[in-house]
Design brief:
The chain has 84 residues and is α+β, with helices and mostly antiparallel strands. The protein is built from three helices and two strands; from the N terminus they run αβαβα. It has one domain. The chain has a two-stranded parallel sheet.
Length: 84
């Protein structure tokens, strides 16, 4: 299982769901991955409806803590526009 996970690179599969609107939330101070190689590359690669949001002053897990309320509002807005 771990070996399979280590080979998983979701950027390569982002266009498998071309009819799904995608919102990419990027931690400005991401410390686990290089945003250029992951989130930004996925955003640039995706051909469907998309939005990129840079969350300032947070690290990777900051989306669950200090930026949780902001992320929640962004998700509600995005889903409201694309799932109704």
């Amino acid at each position: 299982m771990l070996a399979r996970f280590l080979q998983y690179f979701p950027v390569e599969e982002v266009n498998l769901a071309p009819n799904v609107a995608m919102q990419f939330l990027v931690a400005q101070n991401e410390e686990l991955f290089d945003n250029k190689d992951h989130a930004l590359r996925a955003y640039e690669t995706f051909k469907g409806t998309k939005r990129l949001v840079n969350i300032p002053n947070i690290k990777h897990y900051g989306i669950y803590y200090e930026a949780h309320d902001q992320a929640f509002k962004l998700a509600l807005e995005w889903f409201g526009m694309h799932l109704k």
